[in-house]
Write a structure and sequence with these properties.
This protein is an alpha/beta fold and about 600 residues long. Helix content is about 30%, strand content about 20%. The strands form 6 sheets. Strands 11, 12, 13, 14, 15, 16 and 17 form a 7-stranded mixed sheet that branches. The chain binds zinc ion (2 copies).
């Protein structure tokens, strides 16, 4: 029998040769045609690689090797997205510095990747927790701050009861924490926010110029959720204020039979004296405050609400008096915090109207059955009925005509809206990039000058978050107390740190020039290498990492730092690898396949 191929002997030998001769080293010869292949750098967790990692790496390794053979100068790098909660939690439990935990985990990952024989250029390895790296993450934050795109705000946030941190909407899955699975509740906290909403239009437009799999483009657009419609003012009987709503369908105004306000709407407290069923209102509010946005909007199958006894609105197009309700499916953070309900043509409004016995008026013709029997939502086109001066018009014509009408009468105007919210950018934890800002009683929030970067993480005794939800850094008074760069008076450093998404929002730029200590990367390197030619990664990062990194990149383009508007020319996203039991692969489910065994 022929001798079997001896994996260990043959591969170890050649991997050593590749290492010694730096066979996959990227050249700095910018005269050659370039090819930049990128895979999502891993979070070096304590569990080591699982087969979900090699899948995308292998695919692009094949592409990278082929391009090298075709004469391209290929950049195929690897690094570590190493700040974050699991490392910090491990450090707390085992009393080891998170830096040491990270080093150990990186060592393990690197060994595993080596054994798989990938052609990464290890001379360009980056690690988001290196001071020389996060100096530039902080530098980008300063740019955002100075451009007015980073601000502090008291706001209701999604609060993980176990991790004790605020989460972005994108990190809440079915009302639970994406990381740990614990319950997420709403809590008001002062948080750093990034104004990604200001880039909503640019993030949509940018998709036209790139080659992404269609599903990714569609999810990005849906997440941004741009809609065009109108803002309309409804008079409130015997009250000075008007109740303003945003609607994508102003043409259906004649079908409005009630209105709904968010339980947090400021009018409720303002007109407390007028509300006869105040106790019911308070009890309902209390219940709503315990639910996440997701539970309130997506999960709520059974509609709940309380009619405000003492509140009557007037339909501006026909003078009809209509009741006003509060219900938790209306969020204060979307639109105006109040909606007009057109139960004939909206499923949620229809269910609500049926449950609470409110009238249902058909205003777009074509329902196969009486709208009192079933909702009719196929109304993207169609002809208006029961709508006075709009009767007989098409939906598009009616939209235009009613918007003109509202504008002329001074009771409304055309308006564009987005579902996208600003990005909650602070975490009350230790293992993240310090936010390079101080607070001075006289000057407010003041950015550190660039010359003071990097602002290094100080050594602390304990990495435990404090009981009141403050970062462990808050206990480091020597570090916290500083002087104001603006007036020289006493000031306090920001003790929140950045979320894990920070370091991964620009890492692809650093690979082009990883050792540069003067700039995040040289102009020459960026001009030559960017954009990434092919980025391959997971579908689960479509609305998080991909959107965030496109936002930072587009901002850096506007600031003249990078040469192209979009970071990734081509993006492919694959699904998740499931375990043999058909469930998501994870250590806790005991269905992980370790690549070491396969190798
Ligand atoms: Zn959690
Ligand atoms: Zn000052």
């Amino acid at each position: 029998m022929a001798e079997l191929y001896n994996h260990h002997e043959v591969e170890t030998k050649w991997q050593k040769v590749w290492d010694d001769e730096k066979a996959f080293k990227t050249s700095d010869d910018f005269s050659k045609p370039k090819y930049y292949a990128l895979v999502e750098f891993p979070y070096p967790s304590g569990q080591g690689l699982h087969v979900g990692h090699p899948r995308p790496y292998t695919a692009l390794d094949i592409v990278a090797r082929k391009r090298r053979m075709q004469g391209y100068n290929v950049l195929y790098p690897m690094g570590w997205d190493a700040f974050g909660l699991p490392t910090e939690n491990f450090a707390i439990q085992n009393h080891i510095h998170p830096k040491v935990v990270t080093e150990n985990n990186v060592g393990r990952f690197k060994g595993q990747l080596h054994s798989l024989g990938y052609s990464f250029d290890w001379d360009r390895e980056v690690n988001t927790t290196d001071v020389g790296y996060y100096k530039w993450t902080q530098w980008i934050f300063l740019k955002l701050f100075n451009a007015g795109l980073a601000y502090k705000s008291e706001m209701p946030i999604n609060w993980c009861t176990s991790c004790k941190v605020g989460l972005a909407n994108e990190e809440v899955v079915n009302g639970t924490c994406e990381r740990c699975g614990a319950e997420v509740v709403r809590k008001v906290k002062s948080q750093w926010m990034l104004k990604i909403t200001e880039y909503a239009d640019k993030l949509i437009e940018g998709l036209d110029s790139v080659d992404y799999v269609e599903r990714v483009k569609v999810s990005q657009k849906n997440w941004i959720g741009k809609s065009t419609g109108a803002e309309v003012d409804f008079e409130l009987k015997d009250k000075e204020d008007k109740l303003t709503v945003y609607t994508t369908r102003p043409d259906t105004l004649f079908g409005v039979t009630y209105m709904v306000m968010s339980p947090e709407h400021p009018f409720i407290d303002k007109y407390k004296e007028d509300i006869k069923n105040w106790d019911d209102v308070i009890a309902y509010r209390e219940m709503a405050s315990k639910k996440s946005d997701f539970e309130r909007t997506e999960l709520a199958k059974d509609k709940t609400g309380v009619m405000l006894d003492g509140f009557t609105a007037i339909n501006p197009v026909n003078g009809t008096e209509i009741p006003v309700w509060i219900s938790d499916y209306v969020l204060m953070t979307y639109g105006t915090g109040a909606i007009m309900a057109v139960p004939a043509h909206d499923e949620r409004d229809w269910e609500f109207a049926k449950k609470f016995n409110m009238p249902i008026i058909e205003v777009v013709a074509g329902s196969p059955v009486d709208v009192n029997e079933a909702v009719f939502t196929d109304v993207a086109t169609g002809t208006l009925v029961n709508s006075d001066f709009l009767n007989g018009l098409s939906v598009a014509e009616a939209k235009e005509k009613i918007t003109e009408f509202l504008t002329e009468k001074g009771i409304g105007h055309a308006k564009t809206n987005f579902k996208l919210r600003d990005w909650v950018f602070s975490r009350q934890r230790y293992w993240g990039e310090p936010i390079p800002v101080v607070h001075c009683d006289k000057c407010g929030y003041v950015a550190l000058p660039e010359s003071e970067l990097p602002l290094e993480l100080p050594e602390v005794e304990s990495y435990m978050p404090t009981d009141n939800g403050e970062s462990p850094l808050a206990k480091m008074t020597d570090w916290v107390n500083t002087t104001c760069p603006c007036c020289g008076g006493p000031a306090k450093r920001e003790t929140d740190t950045m979320p894990q998404w920070a370091g991964s929002s620009w890492y692809f730029l650093r690979y082009t020039d990883p050792l540069n200590d003067k700039e995040l990367a040289s102009k020459e390197a960026l001009n030559y290498w960017m954009p990434v030619d092919w980025y391959n990664g997971g579908m689960e990062h479509t609305t998080l990492h991909l959107l965030y990194s496109r936002f930072w990149h587009r901002f850096l383009y506007d600031e003249g730092v990078v040469p192209c508007k979009e970071p990734y020319q081509k993006r492919t996203s694959h699904g998740m690898i499931l375990g043999s039991n058909g469930e998501k692969m994870s250590k806790s489910r005991g269905n992980v396949v370790n690549p070491d065994d396969i190798v």
